[in-house]
Amino acid sequence: MLDLDTWEMVGRVALAALLGGAIGVEREIGAQPAGFRTHVVLCLGAALFGLISVHAFDPFATGGDTNVQVDVSRVASQVVVGVGFLGGGAILKERGAIRGLTTAASMWVTAAIGLAVGLGYWQAGLTVTIATLIALVVLRWVRRVLRSRVAAQAETVTFRLRSEADPSGVVTALHALAGVEVQALRLDRDDETRQLTVVATLKSRPWVHLDVALAPLSERPEVDEMVVAR
After folding, report:
1. Phi and psi of 180, rounded to 5°?
2. CB contact set of 214 (below 8 Å; sequence gap of 6+)
């Protein structure tokens, strides 16, 4: 059916997983919501859609005396767009965390697998199915190792200050923490009690023990309570 050798196809899919995983490792180290597994699965899906578009429609090419030509490749493009909407519905944001990215990517690659098998391009569909399962199940421990040893940790810290306290000291101390980056900072004031709350999103390196680094801030005279949300 295809001019492309099966092992060459397998090599292309494997290379796509490798390249997607390399980008995913970089995103994982940066504590981004779409990390290692998401990029692997997404790249696998894109590779399969590419293989389908270039090779799988060859048997359907028309020719001869007729002026009518059916562009069956439009089916693949519409699948990509349609699954994109479905994947967007699987992505949720709750309490500042983004969830469902890997699910959206797996839906996308599953659509590619179904399209491949439906066209009789089962070699690529089977290969990507196995590779996707490896990415979602077996590579889970790789993500765990990356996050525990080399990835930055994103945490939200809330400081409840005493009434009429000046928050500048706490804000300055947060920016001065070694190995800790302040990604977001918000000040909330209770109109009734005049109490200020400092909410900071911090990204810390693996070698930084955030509880230890924040201990001096919790003991500041203007701080009434400190809560770390992980």
Report:
1. -125, 130
2. 157, 177, 226, 228
Structurally, the chain folds into a number of domains equal to: 2
Is residue 1 a part of any domain in this protein?
Answer: no
Q: Are residues 84 and 128 in the same domain?
A: yes
Domain residues for 157?
Answer: 153-229
Better-scored residue on pLDDT, 57 or 183: 183
pLDDT class for 21, splitting at 50, 70, 90?
confident
Q: Among residues 97, 120, 149, which one ends one of the domains?
A: 149
Instruction: Kindly state whether residues 185 and 133 are assigned to the same domain.
Output: no
- Token pair for 49: 């859609």
Q: What pLDDT, in 10s, does the model give residues 29-56?
A: 777 666 788 888 888 888 888 787 777 6
pTM given for the model: 0.60
Q: Are both 90 and 36 inside the same structural domain?
A: yes
